[in-house]
């Protein structure tokens, strides 16, 4: 198919977002996925859906996905859209190098023009907005997730199933599960995030209790994931971690450096707990509580539990 926009994601919910964006900008959209879950993905308005594999997530490789996308880029293709995940951004960069074309990652929006693609993305740790024009086509763009609600279409796409060939020169010897039941931070309406103010790993149980009472997901700042390894990378919120926008964000023992703020600045209501009255997080909070988290958090758990039971 000769499509103006080609969309790829291994995650069907993210692919639905990309298709919705693409259909608003172009009349011809080709979607590609390697996802095992495919229910409903052919009904978001794309003209054709390529299902490769399907492939287990841990068996996906960047080289294989790049080749898969390359096979479906035509002379009419002006834009390749991917999700701004770690994997998606790696594919974007590698594919851009292979095609010797323009790449822009972590974008918030784009406009498809006659001979270029204009994109808008956050820069300077989220403190600035950059508008860039990509004149070398097809442009490769990764979009942040959660920017819109996918819109189903009455039209169903033509579905074509193809094989998938892994091309990576590395071999996966073992895959260890991180454990189930963890809500995607990007989808969470409430998040309790914890920082270096927590003194011991065992004290995270207190944070988890508060999250459980609130029905919230648990996130963290960079030190707890990258330096200490107390929480996983999937729970890391910040410039190099997850970008979230919950209805409620509670920051506990987080100083609030610009790198962290870049990941949660779109939260609707921010509550910060920190013993330092000059902590930068307070400048980005709706409610500021100055005090020792080891005194405040147990009281919060007690009050919320009593309210729930009463």
Automatic annotation (TrEMBL):
Pfam families: ETF (PF01012), ETF_alpha (PF00766)
GO molecular function: electron transfer activity; flavin adenine dinucleotide binding
PROSITE patterns: ETF_ALPHA
Sequence ranges assigned to domain Electron transfer flavoprotein alpha/beta-subunit N-terminal in this UniProt record: 5-175
Protein name: Electron transfer flavoprotein alpha/beta-subunit N-terminal domain-containing protein
Keyword Glycosyltransferase appears in the UniProt entry: no
Similarity comment text for this entry: Belongs to the ETF alpha-subunit/FixB family.
Keywords, ordered alphabetically: Electron transport, FAD, Flavoprotein, Transport
Alphabetical list of Gene3D superfamilies matching this protein: HUPs, TPP-binding domain
Gene Ontology BP annotations: fatty acid beta-oxidation using acyl-CoA dehydrogenase
């Amino acid at each position: 198919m000769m499509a103006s926009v080609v969309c790829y994601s291994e995650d069907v919910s993210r692919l639905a977002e990309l298709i919705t964006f693409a259909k608003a900008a172009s009349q011809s959209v080709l979607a590609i996925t390697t996802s095992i879950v495919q229910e409903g993905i052919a009904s978001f308005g794309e003209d054709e859906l390529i299902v490769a594999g399907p492939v287990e997530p841990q068996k996906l490789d960047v080289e294989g996905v790049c080749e898969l996308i390359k096979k479906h880029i035509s002379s009419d293709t002006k834009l390749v859209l991917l999700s701004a995940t770690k994997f998606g951004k790696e594919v974007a960069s590698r594919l851009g190098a292979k095609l010797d074309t323009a790449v822009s990652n972590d974008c918030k929006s784009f406009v498809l023009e006659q001979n270029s693609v204009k994109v808008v993305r956050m820069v300077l740790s989220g403190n600035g907005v950059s508008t860039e024009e990509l004149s070398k086509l097809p442009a490769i763009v990764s979009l942040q997730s959660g920017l819109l609600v996918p819109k189903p279409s009455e039209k169903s796409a033509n579905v074509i199933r193809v094989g998938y060939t892994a091309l990576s020169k590395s071999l996966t010897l073992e895959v260890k599960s991180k454990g189930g039941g963890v809500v995607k931070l990007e989808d969470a309406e409430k998040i309790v995030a914890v920082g270096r103010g927590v003194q011991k790993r065992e004290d995270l149980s207190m944070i988890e209790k508060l999250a459980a009472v609130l029905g919230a997901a648990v996130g963290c700042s960079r030190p707890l994931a990258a330096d200490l390894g107390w929480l996983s990378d999937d729970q890391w919120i910040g410039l190099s971690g997850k970008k979230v926008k919950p209805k409620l964000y509670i920051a506990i023992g987080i100083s609030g450096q610009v790198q962290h703020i870049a990941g949660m600045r779109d939260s609707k209501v921010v509550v910060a707990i920190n013993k330092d009255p000059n902590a930068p997080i307070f400048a980005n909070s709706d409610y500021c509580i100055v005090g020792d988290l080891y005194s405040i958090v147990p009281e919060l758990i007690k009050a919320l539990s009593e309210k729930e039971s009463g």
